[in-house]
């Protein structure tokens, strides 16, 4: 019988509301040590359509979200993999599914705020102090009530980057 983390038996799929409790447990397990920000369950339910999960034998092993910021810009958010299956390629499969979704949506640039710079660099992301945003686009984005957008824009109204993570950017090839 295949063990957890066996890539042959892992299914990557869109998340469902029934997955939110398991996603929250993953997020909480990473938020405790300060690797990611905690998320309220209500926020995860509101955003469930942005998530993909890796599932095996009914267990959610990992999750991640793609949040569209604008016409050509999206953010990979809330990526977490269970500690006991890290290194089994689950994060890579989740990220590839999110990037495929970005391409389907017509997004050209994908950003993330992360400690896992080596992981994202292996997938083509590069550190980006400044992501070029035109003045008109900035004026539109600044109207968003989403705290993640405010953090991406580095607005004064959000907390400073207390986690010390790195902003990274990937420009997708044309489909």
Ordered list of secondary-structure elements with their pairings:
Blueprint: E1 11-14, H1 20-31, H2 41-46, E2 51-56, E3 59-70, E4 73-81, H3 90-105, E5 109-114, H4 117-122, E6 126-127, H5 135-141, H6 147-153, E7 166-171
Parallel strand pairs: 4-5
Antiparallel strand pairs: 1-2, 2-3, 3-4, 5-7, 6-7
Structural domain count: 1
Averaged pLDDT: 84
How many E strands?
A: 7
N- to C-terminal distance: 39 Å
Cα-atom Rg, whole angstroms?
16 Å
Describe the structure.
- This protein is of the alpha+beta class and 175 residues long.
- It has one domain: Gcn5-related N-acetyltransferase (GNAT) (Aminopeptidase, 3-Layer(aba) Sandwich), CATH 3.40.630.30.
- It has helices spanning 20-31, 41-46, 90-105, 117-122, 135-141, 147-153, and strands at 11-14, 51-56, 59-70, 73-81, 109-114, 126-127, 166-171.
- The chain has a seven-stranded mixed beta sheet with strand order 1-2-3-4-5-7-6.
- Strand 4, helix 3 (90-105) and strand 5 (109-114) form a beta-alpha-beta unit.
- Mean pLDDT is 84; it is low at 157-162.
């Amino acid at each position: 019988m295949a063990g957890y983390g066996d890539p042959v038996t892992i299914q990557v799929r869109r998340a469902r509301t029934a997955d939110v409790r398991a996603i929250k447990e993953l997020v909480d397990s990473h938020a405790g040590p300060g690797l990611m920000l905690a998320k309220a369950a209500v926020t995860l339910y509101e955003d469930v359509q942005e998530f993909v999960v890796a599932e095996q034998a009914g267990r959610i092993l990992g999750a991640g979200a793609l949040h569209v910021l604008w016409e050509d810009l999206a953010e990979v958010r809330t990526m977490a993999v269970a500690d006991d299956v890290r290194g089994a390629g689950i994060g890579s499969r989740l990220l590839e599914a999110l990037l495929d979704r970005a391409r389907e949506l017509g997004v050209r640039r994908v950003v993330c705020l992360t400690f896992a710079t080596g992981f994202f660099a292996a997938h083509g992301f590069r550190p980006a102090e400044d992501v070029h945003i035109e003045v008109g686009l900035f004026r539109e984005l600044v109207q968003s009530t989403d705290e993640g957008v405010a953090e991406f824009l580095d607005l004064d109204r959000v907390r400073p980057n207390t986690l010390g993570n790195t902003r990274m950017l990937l420009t997708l090839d044309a489909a």
